[in-house]
Amino acid sequence: MTSETDMTHKTLALEVNGRVVETRVPAHRTLLDALRDLGYVEVKRGCEKGDCGACAVLVDGVALDSCLTLAWTVEGCSVTTVTGLGNRTEMHPLQEAFVEHGAIQCGYCTPGLIIAAHSMLSENPSPSEADIRNGLSGNLCRCTGYTKVFDAVAKAAGAMREAGETS
Amino acid sequence: MLSGFELDLPDTLVGVLDLIADGRGTPAVPLAGGTSLIVDMRARRTMPNAVVWLGKIPELRGIQVTQDHVRLGPCTTVSDILNSDELAGSGVSLVRAAEAFGGQMVRNAATVAGNIACNSPASDLVPPLMALDAEVILESRSGSRTVALDRYFTGYKEDVRRTDELITGISWKRQEESSVDLFHKLARRKGDAITVVGVAVNMAVSDGTCMRARIALGAVAPTVLRAKRAESMLEGETLTPGLIEAAARQATEEASPIDDVRASATYRRHGIQVLTARLLTQAWGRLT
Description:
The structure holds two protein chains of two kinds. Chain A is built from six helices and five strands, in the order ββαβββααααα. By secondary structure, chain A is α+β, with helices and mostly antiparallel strands. Chain A has a five-stranded mixed sheet. Chain A starts with 8 loop residues before the first strand and ends in a 5-residue tail after the last helix. Chain B has three domains: 6-53, Uridine Diphospho-n-acetylenolpyruvylglucosamine Reductase, domain 2, CATH 3.30.43; 62-173, 2-Layer Sandwich (Uridine Diphospho-n-acetylenolpyruvylglucosamine Reductase, domain 3); 180-287, Enolase-like, domain 1 (2-Layer Sandwich), CATH 3.30.390.50. In chain B, helix 9 (228-234) runs antiparallel to helix 10 and helix 10 runs antiparallel to helix 11. The longest helix of chain B is centred in the last third of the chain and has 23 residues, at 265-287. The model of chain B has no long low-confidence stretch (mean pLDDT 96). Chains A and B meet through strand 4, helix 4 and helix 5 of A and strand 1, helix 2, strand 3 and helix 6 of B.
């Protein structure tokens, strides 16, 4: 098992959160499995059908369900997980707003929600409540009832507009 | 867990057509957004030995609006449609369908050709496209052909596309100013839900006469279909509330809905009646 490439296995150079990591994966490996195998366990496994959004990551800034994305297809793209947006000491405005508004309960859906919100805000920095609901309709949360999530995203959108950046 | 397959990522259309024709002895299945095919593969409903990814060919994605026509590249995503200013003026019913389609991540990945090729009777993009008289362009190594979308589906999960053919475009004539196209999706909730009844209407009116009526129905038959007898009741006529009700009732006769987990056949028929009448009334009201 070296770096030779065939149509079923190859060594990928994946750019994750600004860092290039090499991993040898089969053609049928999803981005979700590849990322979790590499230790990016903030990317959550949910329905694996594109219904729940727990596995969402940004690929070149656009939110995709990593369970429906083959790892080979994102080589050369920039992949961002929720920890790539910010961390405990330097939180992203979305992360701060989720904490402030109590938009997190069990936390399982949170990485996907923040990724989906980020992707939506980069397309539409001033969303209406209906825009927020539609932007997050592919993320299931069974704890919060969503109200605090929508409040947090609206608050973060305002903070990001004031800071003059949507990234 | 997906079972194993060979994966190719060609960067030319010719490369794709070669691989789906015979590839390396195993015809490859085209993959775009994966929101249908990967789900089916994981559920073992389909287990291709070879898959060809279309995402490395930028010219397959995009919206072209010329003086007479609108053409969508096959890999144009649902989000591309939703965010398109051009379509807002020449296919707004399709934009409404894109808005009601899945959740954001699915809209970011799912493609217009995929939504046709997956042959779902509950497709959201097909009813408005069918009501716009859209055509599907199919290409293979041996040539290309154009099929009207309302002749594309031949039965439940069956269509005219050969496995060596790829959908390489979807096009329709730009609508005249005196026309309106509308879409309504009825589902259990507004976002990320499978359609219970989808209705698309396209109407052109001249001098107080309905010159063109199109009614396309989703999720109420083995395929998306046009209610052609209902359409012909309207064309050449001055619409009245009574005629609209009668045409909507005729549309329910042309459908063959089933009972399933989302709704009963009776409820679906009622949905067709109410929504068809509502959209016809709105269209006629805007044009007269």
